[in-house]
Amino acid sequence: MEVQKPPAKKRKLTDKHVPNAILHSEDFSEDSRMYHDLLEMEKRLDWTMTRKRVEVQDALGRPMTTTRTLRIFLSHTVSGQAWQQGESSTSDGNVNVETGEGIPAWQFKVEGRLLEVRLLSHYVNLQRCDRREQIPNQRAKDRVPPRKFSTLVKQMIVELDRDPAQYPDSNTVEWIRSAANQPVLDGFTVRRRGDAPTRIRVLMYLEQHPEQYKLHPELSNILGIKEESRTGVIQALWNYIKLQDLQDKVDRRLIRADAQLRNIFGQDQIQFQQIPERVNRFLMKPDPIVLHYTLNPNVPPPDKPHAYDVEIKIDDTNLKTRMTHVMLSMAPESAKELNKLDEEISLHIQSLHNSHLKRNFLRSFSDNPHGFIQTWLESQSRDLENILGSGPSEGATLRQDDLRRSEFFRLPWVEEAVAVQEGLRLAAKAGL
Asked: For 112, which of 72, 303, 364, 374 could close a Cys bridge (C-beta 3.0–4.6 Å)?
């Protein structure tokens, strides 16, 4: 049974350049120059797009942060208070200790959410835009859901200013975000019994990215910043070193301390790689956000909660989503269409090259038929003698250049070199 051979793979043409003979021809100079300019523009565009893609890929690998506004709401509700019992027609003044019905109590709530981002258009004179920061035509199920309030808080302490003798319940409530799988929440609620007005203080440590630190006053006075990330502090210190020209002229890794940095470094000079370790000693835990609230159960709660806006640095998920969308924006259909157009251009260039050769052939024949035939016969004769190695003239008509190059292979050491090379090849094949 005859085995069918697989079809030969079609060679893909990739050359899109016009032959030099056509490019420098007076008849096609203008069109050739326009096409050459298009190729150069395409080359620059491809290079720019490739560079931007690499930059986007590199940026996706680095942490991207943005400053958002976190709005915190403080509110309370009451139950079982005297003014509520007086208004209720169903209450008979009885108190149920087990269910807590009729016992004066209140609930203090701490809630929060990130405000929606309004884009600042960097392309239209930085004018405000009313669109939300979303990818055009993005499906609702593909959008990133808003983060819960508890994911933005690292630690929260609620202090109640109450008489412990009268209210034995704990007057300090603390919540710490642990590594365990804690449920994410939109807010926190503190429940207590009582009808006395209470002053409440809320201490809140935010979960920021990158982590923020408070600078020691000595370092803060030098850099002019009070709170920053570790990377930002080192960058600011490096800018100060460059501004004051504190690098050693010979060894650029050596930093000479001036009068202000001498207290930070503890010596007159320091290696650059030792700076992060010294800087860590001057970074402290940031101050908490302190919120005050007065809860009076004897009057109806306010209709609207108290709201406070604080700035928080978090991962810029919207920017990452947009950059990923840019990386994947070229659909397979578009790429396939571009490849098809490139193949068509290469085919046209190949056809143009063949047509140019045919045109020159026919023009040469029409200009001087006798000379053209004579030159063509001499060329065919030389090619035939080159193939056969001999002829009616015993190679006398071979070109002298070919004869000079052939003498190289008749040198005495050529045979020995061929034998050594062949021996090495056979030894490598045998695995020796």
From this structure: 72
Q: What is the pLDDT of residue 321?
A: 75
Position 339 scores a pLDDT of 83
Q: Count CB-CB contacts under 10 A for residue 219.
A: 21
**Tens digits of residue pLDDT in 182-212:** 888 899 999 998 889 999 999 999 998 888 9
16: Cβ contacts below 8 Å, ≥ 6 apart: 39, 342, 345, 346, 349
Evaluate whether 276 touches 234 at the Cβ level (below 8 Å). Answer: yes
How far apart CA 54 and CA 47 sit, in angstroms, is: 11
Cα gap 311→114, rounded to integer Å? 10
Residue 176 and residue 157: Cα distance in Å, rounded? 9
Structural domains of the chain in order of their starting residue, each with its CATH number = 14-64+316-331+338-367 (no CATH), 65-89+101-210+287-315 (2.60.40), 225-281 (1.10.245.10)
Burial (CB count within 10 angstroms: exposed 0-12, middle 13-18, buried 19+), residue 157? middle
| pLDDT-derived band at 120, boundaries 50, 70, 90 | very low
